[in-house]
Design goal:
Number of helices: 11
CATH topology of one domain: Tetrahydropterin Synthase, Chain A
Shape: flat
Distance between the termini: 25 Å
Order of helices and strands: HHHEEHHHHEEEEHHHHE
CATH architecture of one domain: 2-Layer Sandwich
Largest sheet: 4 strands, antiparallel
CATH class of one domain: Alpha Beta
């Protein structure tokens, strides 16, 4: 009973829906939070959001860099208390440097020796034993293509290149990196703040798009609107979802009247600027 009440409370926090409706959703969906969110959205009760996420882990994001090469790692702990532990911080920073030297290859990094001449995976076990919390090296990535212009950004850094949200970004342009340094930083900050799911509609995950379409359709069915009107509304809502979640079509965070693609076009002038790739890590996201 206590467990169900906790789930109802969690569902209320995620959706802003009243206790009674949340209780019905939890009961109808066997206590599954994600299915309950979907259930409420289809009924048109829950607030539409691209991301009703569960964050069940703490820890740190760390970025390492060497000229145009960057790495990013997420290392999780159970509590923020451990994430502030100096020994944990030093471990994260050294792992990040090893991720950079191993070009983001997690297996090679895990078998690399750290400064104490013990391999990473054994140091990890020793740290878990010493601190008394589960610690995991969740994910790593590396941007090291020499023909691209690579940038990074750490949001609310607790220390240089160390914090809770980190971004790596690759641009392709005949312009130099110094010419695009300000734009690269601003674009990375934009990605950190607005969390796009893809660069453009063409590379947006079809499963995400189909799921959103299904939710919108079900919501409109339950509203009792005429089918032709509902179809037009559904198309408008889906287009808005695409615009809100694809980087090039998002409103530029610095000047919302412009879209990101317009900002890139203006900055390019007679040249071109292409967003090739980005990653955004947020501690505990999706765990």
């Amino acid at each position: 009973m206590a467990s169900d009440l906790d789930k109802v409370k969690k569902l209320r926090e995620l959706t802003g829906v009243g206790f009674k409706d949340c209780k019905i959703a939890i009961d109808e969906n066997g206590g599954d939070i994600e299915k309950s969110i979907e259930f409420l959205r289809k009924k048109g009760i829950a607030k539409a959001s691209k991301k009703m996420e569960r964050v069940a882990a703490d820890g740190l994001i760390c970025i390492s860099e060497n000229e145009n090469k960057f790495s990013i790692v997420e290392i999780n702990s159970e509590t923020d208390f451990v994430a502030k532990n100096n020994e944990f911080i030093k471990f994260v920073e050294e792992i990040s440097d090893l991720a950079l030297s191993n070009s983001g290859n997690k297996e090679k990094m895990l078998n690399s020796k750290m400064k104490n001449q013990i391999v990473v995976k054994d140091n990890l076990i020793n740290l878990i034993s010493k601190i008394g919390e589960k610690i995991s090296i969740r994910r790593i990535d590396s941007f090291n293509e020499s023909e691209l212009l690579n940038f990074s950004y750490m949001h609310s850094a607790v220390k240089k290149n160390l914090g809770k949200i980190g971004v790596l970004l690759s641009l392709k342009s005949p312009k130099s990196k110094s010419e695009l340094s300000e734009l690269g930083k601003q674009l990375s900050m934009h990605i950190a703040a607005l969390s796009p799911l893809s660069i453009d509609k063409s590379d947006l995950d079809k499963n995400i798009l189909n799921k959103e379409k299904e939710i919108i359709t079900e919501e409109l069915k339950n509203s009792g609107k005429d089918s032709k009107i509902a179809e037009k509304i559904a198309l408008g809502k889906l287009n808005k979802f695409v615009n809100d979640n694809t980087l090039l079509n998002q409103e530029w965070i610095i000047e919302p009247k412009k879209k990101v693609k317009d900002v890139l076009k203006n900055a390019a002038g007679n040249d071109s600027i292409e967003v090739v790739r980005f990653v955004r890590y947020k501690v505990g996201e999706g765990v």
